Amino acid sequence: MKKPAFLFNQRITVLVAVLVILFIIFAYGSLIYPHSWFQPSGGSLEPPSVTHVLGTDDLGIDIFAQLSRGFFTSILIGLMAAAIAFMLGGVLGGLAGYFKGWVDESISFVINLFLAIPQLPIMIVMGAFFGPSIVNVVLIVALFSWAPIAKIVRAKMVERIDSNYIRLAKSYGGGFFYIVKTHLLPDILPVLSVNAIAVIGKAIVQEASLAFLGLSDPLSKSWGLMMNKAINFKGIYFMDAWIWWLLPPLFCLMGTILCIRLISREIENQLIND
After folding, report:
1. Average pLDDT of the segment spanning 185-208
2. Domains of the chain, residue spans
3. Cα separation of 137 and 123, whole Å?
4. pTM
5. What's the pLDDT at 254?
6. Which CATH entry fits the domain spanning 5-42+54-273: 3.40.50.1370, 3.30.390.50, 3.90.180.10, 1.10.3720.10?
């Protein structure tokens, strides 16, 4: 039985509202909250209090301020990587599906190659080779995120390109850009957008993984870097500091990724049902 579309809209609204609430909370932590995310503002490993709502780390730096900074760092990296993967995957997948022949075979070979190679080990090697910086992390994450998008776009293009209205448009002199813009893009753009949203969550996970391994920019605070410093602190599990130092970035990472993935899935389900 087909479910009403408004149920999916309601779920999407709730999920987006959760992300907006997180955005407001962390915007307060970044812009209004009186403590710095990079300078000590209290004693070492202070527990949560009215002054420091999530306590401090071993250097006396406020955890909530670091958490707020990490949210915007993760979202920025996710959006930038998704934008690059969106453009690269859309263009290459579109070219492969439209022209076919040796163009399709060449691009499909590259797509399958990137889908087959193990991503995390290669990302670790590249991160260590090129050095820790946000730009490098964005490029590395985007490099391993475009292939699934390109594969889906290519499949959609192949499905549409042999339809009667496309053949008719070609017979009347319709060129590549006209056909793509007028007839193909309206069908492909929703699917492309859904996959780009999924890439944001994937990029946040991959950035956190690299940061956790010490391969991200140490000067830009991120949730993975916070967990890395907490775990590497000697004696962290022999005191209560792990509760307010390690768990908040972990739960924030899980919650943010879960919301983004669920939004992507709900939009995809709605497109399928409609």
Report:
1. 82
2. 5-42+54-273
3. 9
4. 0.81
5. 92
6. 1.10.3720.10
